[in-house]
Design a protein that fits this description.
The complex is a heterodimer. Chain A is mostly helical. Helix content of chain A is about 75%, strand content about 0%. The radius of gyration of chain A is 28 Å and the shape is globular. Chain B is of the alpha+beta class. Chain B is built from 4 helices and 11 strands. The chains are: A mainly alpha, B alpha+beta. The interface between A and B is large, with 42 and 42 residues.
Amino acid sequence: MSRKFLENESPGWVTDGLISEAQRQKLLARYPPEAQALGLLPILGSVLVGLSGLSVVAANWQALPAALRLALLLGSLLGSYGAGAYFLRRGNADLGHGLIGLGLLLFGASIILTSQLYQLVGYDASGLLAWVVAGTALSYVYGSRLLVLLTVLIGAAVQTYCVESLGSFSYATAWLVVGGLGYYWWRRPGVVSSHVLAVGLLWQAGLLVIALHAKITWFFVPAMLVYAAGDWQPNRSGGRALQAAPLTAAYIFMFGLATFGETDAYANVLRPPLLPYLAALGAVFALSAAGKRVQGRLASLPDWLLLLPGFYLSGGLPLAVATLVVLYAHAGSVLARAHRDQDSDQLTIGAVLFVAATMVAYFKLTWGFLDKSVFFLLGGVLLLSLSWYLRRRTARLVAANAAAAPSQPLATPAQPGDEPAPTAPTE
Amino acid sequence: MTDLLTWFAAPIRRRPLVRLLVAAQVLYVLGVAGAGYATTELGQHIMLTTTPIDPRDLLYGDFVRLHYGISEVPLHLWHGEEAPRRRQSIFVLLATGPDSLSTAVGVYPQAPKPSVGQAVLRGWVTEVYRNSLSLRYNLERYYVPEGSGLRLEKAGRLHPLQVRVSIAPWGQARITDVDVAK
């Protein structure tokens, strides 16, 4: 609750007899006005001074003697780590971690600028690997979300440089991100860092596929390994957050397959050798299912529907229909789960997925032979009725929630007659 | 030791650990600088010539773009089992001629053993043509000291430049000097 809100609203509470004037004063005293705005000015001032210094140095960089350049780099590196430690001791964690993050960035800049200073050629990741090591170590020592985020970004940048410029995949970098930050995530599964780590890991997986010149569908083996890790994570929200990125990737792929997969030309690039691919994906599936069983989350097993390798079907109608069935089944499973868990956020996601599947089906199946006006009319009616139906369902769920909440929130089962069957219009 | 993270972040250990980490970073940067000196001191020196390129492209801010004679090699110099691929990393065997300039005598996917008067320079395939290979050595940028860039640029338009490269025993290469060919 913000102080401003309290100041504006509390006189009304006193007039309405909710609280007494004395209580109002006590409340106001409990939330003193924040002095942060004032603290911001010196920071802004020092940032400007710093920027001016930086631009002077940058403009004359080439003219400075080598030793001075080296001293400047190391001086600013030491300065930011020192300042970061100072502010952490003073209890200003945000600024402290920010400055330590700046130190980490300066370390990378120092490596790059020093090798440029001596015209050194980089042949592999070994030079920049130290940057990732330093980031991982600092994340452990300070346990800061910002440093984890920076290290994931640094790992992605180093790997991109390796694959794009040096033509090789740095397994050491990948293992540092997987092992070092993966362990961090296992112990501290914060939602934000889980998302960031998942995206970083998918980035590494994508670069590995590019570097190996493999079929892009192989991407889903490491991606789903990330997903399976989420299944084993005891912390439910952290595990779920790690799974969001791989699931999104799988969904986009399946959606693309449903939309553009008709011509066999696309499907052909997607087909890895059948047996090795299915064996690898099957092994990851088994790992994921085992994790779900152990953690009691078997309800999310239908997520795997999105991984059905429909691209082995020959292009054209069979593929289009198969992918549509999968999209519908997946949306239905999300809706069903949301309904069982009475989770309104998941319900919204399920509804969106359902509408998306319907849109694809509609565009694919009717664009060719319907008159344009009938096409749009039908589409509009379809969407309107769908939105009406889903809204009614949500409203009923919210009402059921509200009714169940005061008595026993968990023991109340979902209404028996209310089995989720999204394709059935009425009950 | 149940949790590595709590072990690392324990208040007693944090300060020495941070000092160790920062000291290691400083030493590492100094080590990179040392590698630069060591490459010049201990390395094998070769001389390469550049071919003049589009003068508008030559000077890019703080560095001069260099295009070497060995940036394009005929395909028959390739000594690999499989055909060369783009972005593949390769080793170029260089031999020094009577004019003390080095020319490419072979391109290998694995490091070859150089004999006397030969050197090995690492690089990457940038493009594979029907009869030739386009190569990159990451020596294509020379960061020039203030003011001298313009002189080199003007010279590079008309004459080839001579680039002195040091190759360390561990394979690291660096440009030590760029001058106008005499």
